[in-house]
Amino acid sequence: MQLRYGLSIQSSLIGCRNISTITAKKETMIMQKREVVVAMSGLPGNMPTKIVEHILRADKEKYPFILCPHALTGPEVTQKTVTIYRKKIKLYQPDRAEEFFDAVERFEDTRPVVIVDYTHASAIEKNVQLYCAEGIPFVMGTTGGDEKWIKKIVKETTNCAIVGPNASAQIVVFQAMMTYVATTFPDIFRGFTLEVVESHQKGKKDTSGTAKAIVKNFNAMGIPFTFDQIRKIREPNEQRAIGVPEEYLTGHAWHTYTVRAPDDSVFFQFTHNVNGRDTYALGTLDLINFLMNNIKIGKTYSVIDCAKKAQKMNTMVN
Questions:
Q1: Is pLDDT at 158 greater than 80 in this prediction?
Q2: Which of 50, 70, 120, 200 is catalytic?
Q3: Mean pLDDT over all residues of the chain?
Q4: 191 dihedral zone (left: phi>0; alpha: psi -120 to 50; beta)
Q5: 255 is catalytic
Q6: Stretch(es) of the chain classified as CATH 3.30.360.10
Q7: Predicted confidence band at 314 (pLDDT cuts at 50, 70, 90)?
Q8: CATH for 25-163+279-317?
Q9: Are the C-beta atoms of 65 and 36 separated by less than 8 Å?
């Protein structure tokens, strides 16, 4: 069936205002190959801006996206528009959300639409409810959300989404590796101590979601450690001291996890450092592709789902 925003699905309904006719399987496949309108939520923030840059420069064969010239922004943003690579985008504050959705509907012209959200943890709940009420599939890249709650809302409203607070497939696979160890070898590090240091640009207020996820894994491996014990570095001078390049002080994600035996006779250290935002932006483009080609009623995907599908496709090709 065709939704308000031009996305065809073969069964059930999505909770949006205008649902039209049921489509045949062949028509659904055709729809999935059409250009996808990408609407941003969070401009003029750094991550949404970087994603827009990549959308505008992308190979249209690989990423058949059209940038919507309308975007949601935060209540504190006073500017009316933002221009990126000569592309002018009109910004709508939360109290003008209805106006935003109407503008998107006029622009999409029966093409499928997806919303990409990189906003603020405090906005996640309201935004998810908005997207689901409109029946628009979405990529939730904002950190700090309750994934169980998001899955519940997506299922109840029969929408479809992908939750990717870390869109870098390689880092997420590292997390999966640690989860495997924690599940397969519980308490393997019992008696050991843990130190976690994460450094991000000064504007990031919350503790890294990736660091929290890895801490949970170490908890399962037998090390008691709380989120409050994670050392957050946000001051540029401290970041310079640990080696963050000057040009990436305004955009980086450095993490180090140090595990020691009680007598210091055994020492493990896991480090993953990201300079810039390109890996997350390109990863988000892959998430958009994955979501719009795997629409399933009430389904919430993860970045791991996307990575597994990509690996399967690579195996088939090779």
A1: yes
A2: 200
A3: 88
A4: left
A5: no
A6: 169-276
A7: low
A8: 3.40.50.720
A9: yes
Q: What is the CATH number of domain 169-276?
A: 3.30.360.10
Examine the pLDDT at 50 and tell me if it is beyond 60: yes
DSSP the chain: -B-TTS-B-SSS--SSS-------HHHHHHHHTS-EEEEEESTTSHHHHHHHHHHHHS-TTT--EEE-SEEE--TT---SEEEETTEEEEEE-GGGHHHHHHHHHHHHTT--EEEEE---GGGHHHHHHHHHHHT--EEE--SS--HHHHHHHHHHTT--EEE-SS--HHHHHHHHHHHHHHHHSTTTTTT-EEEEEEEE-TT--SPPHHHHHHHHHHHHTT----GGGSEEE--HHHHHHHT--GGGTTSEEEEEEEEE-TTSS-EEEEEEEEESSHHHHHHHHHHHHHHHTS--TT-EEEHHHHHHHHHHHHHHH-
CA distances from 264 to 10, 93, 136, 191, 229 (A): 59, 54, 53, 11, 20
> In the chain, where does the domain assigned CATH 3.40.50.720 lie?
25-163+279-317
User: Is 204 an annotated catalytic residue?
Assistant: yes
Token pair for 268: 């493990």
pLDDT at 317 > cutoff 70 = no
pTM of the model: 0.84
Which tens digits make up the pLDDT trace of 229-272? 999 999 999 999 999 999 999 999 999 999 999 999 999 999 99
Say how far apart CA 316 and CA 250 lie, in whole Å.
Answer: 40
Name the active-site residue from 204, 296, 308, 309: 204
Q: Residue 161 class from Cβ within 10 Å (0-12 exposed, 13-18 middle, 19+ buried)? A: buried
CA distance 65 to 284: 12
Distance, in Å, from the CA atom of 318 to the CA atom of 314, rounded to the nearest integer, reads 6
